[in-house]
Amino acid sequence: MIRHIVAFELDAPDDEARRAHIERMQNVLEALATLDEVESITVRPDLGTADGHWDVVLVSEHRSTAALEAYQVHPRHREAATIAGEFVARRAIVDYEY
């Protein structure tokens, strides 16, 4: 199994906009859970209890690196990434096998 983790720092003028951006990201990205290449996908905001934390994280699980690669080029993923990317200032990604 492969775990794909993406942390996002958002470009938002205030907390209200940040919450709206996160909700939109959750809606479009978690909808990808129905893809055959995805075992699970979760998008959650940071708790906001410490300075310096990034705003939101995506964690998805895939059966293999081939499934992850297929997910990343899937048209629905590309569309969702474009929508979610509208709000992103920076992102960090880690993929690992477990």
Automatic annotation (TrEMBL):
<protein>
    <submittedName>
        <fullName>Dabb family protein</fullName>
    </submittedName>
</protein>
<dbReference type="InterPro" id="IPR011008">
    <property type="entry name" value="Dimeric_a/b-barrel"/>
</dbReference>
<dbReference type="Pfam" id="PF07876">
    <property type="entry name" value="Dabb"/>
</dbReference>
<dbReference type="InterPro" id="IPR013097">
    <property type="entry name" value="Dabb"/>
</dbReference>
<feature type="domain" description="Stress-response A/B barrel">
    <location>
        <begin position="2"/>
        <end position="96"/>
    </location>
</feature>
